[in-house]
Specification:
Blueprint lengths: L23 E5 L3 H12 L3 E5 L2 H10 L1 E4 L5 E3 L2 E3 L10 E4 L6 H8 L7 E4 L5 H10 L6 E10 L5 E13 L6 H12 L6 E2 L3 H22 L3 H4 L5 H18 L6 H11 L9 H7 L7 H13 L5 H17 L1
Parallel strand pairs: 1-2, 1-6, 2-5, 3-9, 6-7, 9-10
Antiparallel strand pairs: 3-4, 8-9
Helix pairs in contact: 6-8, 6-12, 11-12
Bound molecules: NADPH dihydro-nicotinamide-adenine-dinucleotide phosphate and ketopantoate.
Amino acid sequence: MRVGNPAPPEQSVLPLGEGDGTLRILVLGAGGIGGYYGGRLAAAGGDVTFLVRPRRAEQLMKDGLVIRSPLGDAQVPVKTILREHVQPGWDAIIIACKSYDLEDAIEAVRPAAPGALIVPQLNGLRHLDTLDAAFGAEAVTGGVAQIAVTLDEGGAIRHLSGMQGFVIGARHPAQQQRVAALHAELERGGFGPRLSDVIMQDMWEKFAFLCTLAGICCLMRAGTNVIACTEDGAALTLELLDTCLAVATTAGFPPRERFLAATRRMLTDTSAPFAASMLRDLQRGGRVEADHIVGDMLARAKAAGLPATLLRAAYAHLQVYEAQRG
Ligand SMILES: NC(=O)C1=CN([C@@H]2O[C@H](COP(=O)(O)OP(=O)(O)OC[C@H]3O[C@@H](n4cnc5c(N)ncnc54)[C@H](OP(=O)(O)O)[C@@H]3O)[C@@H](O)[C@H]2O)C=CC1
Ligand SMILES: CC(C)(CO)C(=O)C(=O)O
C-alpha cells in the first residue's frame, strides 16, 4: 500500500483524463462507504478523488485514508477536492452520503456532472428519483453496497466484517457500455464488484432486507442475534420482512427464492452479532435515515393498501427518537 501525505486539497486535482484509459472517478464523501470502496480503488492505483468538506480534507491530508479491515488494513494518500473547486471532467461520480445530505451533495457535485455517470451507493430507493430529477435518468445508475463499515472518531474507516459486496447496474440501455467499463475499472479495487443486469431487483431486495433489519434493530435497540433469542423476536422480524416483501412484490419485484432463504436465515441467526448501520447511528445519538428507509417503505405500503402494523411502529419509534434528539 502507498503511504504518505497527499498534496493539499486545492492543488490535488488532476485536469481531464490522462489518456491511459484509466477512468477518473469522483467520490462524494469519504465516510464509511465512499472511504472504503474509494480507498481500496485508490490503493490499487485507481484515479480517485474525494469531494469532501474542509474538516475531512484536513484529516485526509494529515493521515491519508485509513482502512482497518479483517481483509487487510490500508493507509493511502488520496486526492481530495473542496466543492468550490469542482469542475467537469469525470467519468463517474460515486455518491456516498447519507440520504439526509443528498440535496446538498447534489449541489456540491453539480459542476462535475456533465458527461459523468452518477453512481449512488445509498441504501433505499427514493434517492433515485431525486438524482434523476437533478441529472436526468440516463445519467443515474443503480447501486447496492453490501458491507458493514463505520467511520471512527479518529477518521479511520472500520470494516466490521469480511463482507464487501458492491453491485452496480444500468437502469437505462444508454448507460450499459459505460457501466460495464466502470465495473471493469472497479475490479482493480479488489472488492469483487458485481455487474448486475437486474439492478432494480437487487435494489428492491436490499431495500426490503435493510428496512426489516433497521426497523427491528432500532425498535428493539439490539442486534438480530439478540432479538432472535427472545420468545417472539424471530417471528416479529420475519413478519416485518413479509410486509416489506409484500411492498416489493406490489411494485413488481417479488423476491427471488435464494434471496428469501438467505435473508430469513441471516435475520434469525443467533450465532453472531448482526445489526443495521442505522442502529449504530442511533446509539451514538446521530441522525438516522428514518424517512428514507422505514418511512419510504411505509408510505409505499400505505399507498398499496397493505397492512403494516410493525412498520408503523418502527417508523413511529424512529420519529420519536428524532423528535427527542431535537
Ligand atoms: N455504513 C454501512 O455499513 C452501510 C451504509 N450504506 C449506505 O451508504 C450511505 C452512506 O453511508 P455511510 O458511508 O455509512 O455514511 P457516513 O456518514 O459514514 O459517510 C457519509 C459521508 O458523506 C459526507 N458528505 C455528506 N454530504 C457531503 C457534501 N455535501 N460534501 C462532501 N461530503 C459530504 C459526510 O461528510 P462529513 O464527514 O463532512 O459530514 C460523510 O463523511 C447511506 O445511505 C447508508 O445507508 C449502505 C450499506 C452499508
Ligand atoms: C445491512 C447492511 C450492513 C448491509 O450492507 C447495511 O446496509 C446497513 O447496515 O446499512
